[in-house]
Amino acid sequence: MSDHLLFSYGTLRLPQVQLARFGRELDGRPDALVGFRLETVKITDASVVADSGSDEHPVAVPTSDPRDAVEGMVFTLTPDDLAAADAYEVDDYLRVKADLRSGEKAWVYVDAATAEEFRATRLLTAQANAITLFDEIVRRGLIAPGRTEKDVSDDVRDLANEMFGTTRHWHKRIVRSGPNTLLPYRENPPNRVVEADDIVFCDFGPIFEEFEADLGRTYVLGDDPVKHRLAADLPVVFEAGRQFFAADPEMTGARLFAEVDRLARERGWVLGHVHAGHLVGEFPHEKIDAADIESYVAEGNTTPMRRIDKAGRVAHWILEIHLVDADRGFGGFYEQLLDL
Description:
Elements lengths: L3 E5 L6 H8 L5 E7 L1 E7 L3 H7 L3 E7 L6 E9 L1 H10 L4 E7 L5 E7 H28 L9 H16 L9 E4 L21 E6 L2 E2 L2 E2 L2 E6 L4 H22 L6 H14 L3 E2 L3 E6 L15 E3 L17 E10 L4 E8 L3
Parallel strand pairs: 1-7
Antiparallel strand pairs: 1-5, 2-5, 3-4, 6-7, 8-9, 9-12, 10-11, 13-16, 14-15, 14-16, 16-17
């Protein structure tokens, strides 16, 4: 597993705390946390007070003003070190990814009372950027007959870099047309030329300010009424699934998957994949593993979706709607944030 950058402005910079929590002193470099100011929090955890020598600790509060900055140090931590840091920071703090003055992104422990709003705003901003990108794909006519799926994918990559600066993607870029639209995410079909009467879907996961967007949209190039009906049904099924989720505070991935499956069949389609969504958040997000059913909107996930992860962060979700018509040999795809 890879190392992590952690920005510290408080007691994690102290040699005695590092020795107690990591077993060694850390090498660091100065930097600053942008868009935050410092306040003070009273610590009641006896072990934390003993290690730091104080029951009053600084806490960073987001201001959204880029002129505000908190000075501190950047350290490189192993995954085990990061887990030890999580254990040290009390419930008043929440670990998030944030911008540093140097241009780097790092984990930082900030005020838990305001951090979730900070995370939600970043996730929604990332999605808004992705929607803007998709709108520009249409405006520039990048999806057109005679072009290959790879042509479109490469142009979208270049367009994202043009619009937002060098943009990373947290999962592979997907452009699928015709019969390739039947295939789920993990498949890698041969590159195909888009035809005049095709249905095409795009699935991209750009990263903006270390927060992941995950957006999928479907486009119909010809006049086929069935393809147009499928494309129109995608956001309808998505919204019905979102309302079903919103109505039950104890919603599980299994129950939501079953409802999305029912909604699809009600409209004459079937689902094209074994899950209908997944966790999303800071990059890299909470482990998404095929063996970890709790990461998915899928059969077998009986854990409530509204939960807190190991670092104390609210779990946020993407809802994926992949509808297919196997007899006619095409499908469509639509996804975005479920719970925000």
